[in-house]
Each structure stands twice: as structure tokens, then as C-alpha cells.
Amino acid sequence: MTTWLTNAWYVAGWDAEVDSAPLARTICGVPMLFYRKLDRSVVAMRDACPHRLLPLSLGFREGDSIRCKYHGLKLGPDGAAEEMPIKTDPVNRKVCAQTYVVHERHRFVWVWVGEAEKADPALIPDLWPCSAEGWVFDGGHYPVAADYRLMIDNLMDLTHETYVHDGSIGQQEIVEAPLETQVIGDRAYVRRWMPGIEAPPFWRGALKRDGLVDRWQICEFLLPSAVMIDVGVALVGAGASLESHDQGVRGMVVDFMTPETETTHHYFWGMARNFDLADPGFTARFKRQQGGVFEEDREILEAQQKAIQANPDLKLSAYRIDEGGVRARQIIARAIKAGGQSAEAAA
Questions:
Q1: Could you read off the pLDDT of 203-245 as tens digits, one per residue?
Q2: Does this model's pTM top 0.85?
Q3: Could you give the CA distance from residue 82 to residue 85 in angstroms, rounded to a whole number?
Q4: Measured between alpha carbons, how far is 217 from 158 in angstroms, rounded to an integer?
Q5: Which residues contact 25 (CB under 8 A, 6 or more apart)?
């Protein structure tokens, strides 16, 4: 049993992470190898030589192929043998490493971990701000020693900002504002509107002026494990609302949690914004600041995962503020069950 959906697209890496050199990364419990061919298209292959199972990521690139470092078996980008360890032996094309379907979109390299014939690029989550005109997008990657669903819980409950991120984006008004939670199909939403408040340090700097603001947070969960958070502030009286809010400074926090194991995941984070588009220096500073915020989350979640394992007789509790995460987990469990997998662990 697994806690993740198998027939789905997962982020394997940022476009800049995958290059000609082999990149090893475990995705949904499967050790995989990624590299770019000479034409820059991406290869995804099982990171185990079909001979003696040494990780192929330790091997040597030769053109579009890879040669195992142990005995020299050479495999093409389709995973099939091109040259045997004894070069005079006839090539056995049945010697083959499994390959996976990959696709590039939204600055990410996506891999389909399930049945290859079901790998439809139209099923890639619609992280639209990452590619839309009038938006700039950048971010980073953290390995996190915690169940990927704990990060989904974290992102669908921004009440923690008041305490975990009190020096940057947190403020008391977050815990005082009412929450609205909604499920539409296979998406879950959590909305919070904070009118007439002082902007926290980060947003005051982005707005470049003082004054009371209206602040919003709209969290959206998308299968298999993405969360987009529409955030920003606008000066009071500018006309912003939960439904329409391009009057001030607006960002879209983009998060994708790719399971590695049952208790670890890859956290791909970033923010798309619709302001200061032509300032690459601000983009770099913004990314550094955001990385610091998410580092605080990583510290909390890894401590939480250790506590869960240290207290097997206890279970997580869910309060009103946790409804978004609970709904997201239910959506995941239903999708797993519909796909023929056991939903017991996910539920």
C-alpha cells in the first residue's frame, strides 16, 4: 500500500536541475535517473543497471547513452542495451532498464510514475501563473524528511504563519480572520479575507508604501499533490475583494510535493508574481526570502514527523483550521481508490 496516487504526473526537478550529467532522484519509492540528450530532451530511467543493479547515475554519459561504471554495460536512452560488458559479445536488446514518460511544462520536468499508456500531458496540474504572460516565476527545491501530506496540511492551513513566520509574513490578524473552506470536484479551497489591517513586513516592502491594506489568502489543492496559494495586499479603498484582487501586489505561491518514500518528499516551491516584472535582482532577493520562510516550515514538519514516529499510539487531531488539509487528504484517498489502489493508508 502507498499513500500516493500512482497514475499521475509528479515533478522530478526544475528545468535547470536536469542537465547532461546524470541526476539521481527517488520518486514515489522508485530510484530514477534523469539526464538531457544532445537535443536537450529529457530521459528518465530506472536508476539500476539491469546487470548487477549498480545505480546508473554513477555511470558515464556517452553521447545520448549511459555506460554502467561497474562492468561497462552501455544502455541507450530507450533503456535497451547497446553494448555488452564484453564488447565482442552480441548485443542482447532484451537487456533493458525501465524508462518513464517525461514532459516539460511550467519550468518543471514532470515524470509519469504509473502505466505509460495513460501518461496524458493534459493531466499535468494547471499551474498557470508559472507560464502566464504578465507573471514572473522562480523558486527552489528542498528535500524534506516528512510525509508529503504533512506539507499539504501545512499549506492548506495558513494559521501557522502567525507563529512559525512571525518575522516575515505572519501577523495576528490571520488567526482572527474567518475561514471559508470549499470542495469543487477534485479541488479543495481555503479562503481568508483580512480587511483594513497593517501589512506585514514582506508585503509592505512589496507594496512600497505605508497605509492600511486589505489582505487575502486563497489556498487551492490540486491532484496529485500541488497547492497554489493566491496571496497579496491592496490599499484600503482600492476595490480589491476575494473575487477580484489585481489592484495591489499579488503573488501565487506554487508548491508541489513529490513523494520520495512514505516519510520523505521533495518539496518544489516558488512564487509567481505580477509586479516588478523587469527587476531580476528583486526576483533573486525574493527567492532568497521565500526560501528562508519555507526553511522554517521544513524545520517544523521534520520535527512533527519524528514525533509521529515516536508516538505510534497517538493520532493527529483535526480542528476547524485543519479542514482544508482534511479535504485534500480525502480527495487523494478517493483518487487512489478510483485508480484501483488501496486507499486505507491514504485515508
A1: 888 888 888 999 999 999 999 999 999 999 999 998 888 888 8
A2: yes
A3: 10
A4: 8
A5: 12, 13, 32, 34, 266
Domains of the chain are 9-121 (2.102.10.10), 129-338 (3.90.380.10)
Can you spell out the DSSP letters for 308-324?
Answer: HHH-TT------GGGHH
According to the model, what pLDDT value does residue 344 have?
42
* 304-314: pLDDT as tens digits: 999 999 999 99
DSSP state letters, 238-273 = S---SS---SSEEEEEEEEEEEEETTEEEEEEEEEE
Bridge partners for 141 per DSSP: 268
Helix locations, the chain, DSSP H: 148-155, 161-164, 173-176, 201-207, 280-310, 323-338
Cell digits for 331?
Answer: 480527495
* Closest to 29 in 3D by CA, of 51, 54, 4: 4
Q: Measured between alpha carbons, how far is residue 229 from residues 25, 142, 336 in Å?
A: 27, 18, 24
- Percent helix, strand, coil in the chain (nearest 5)? 25, 35, 40
Contact between 221 and 324 (Cβ < 8 Å) = yes
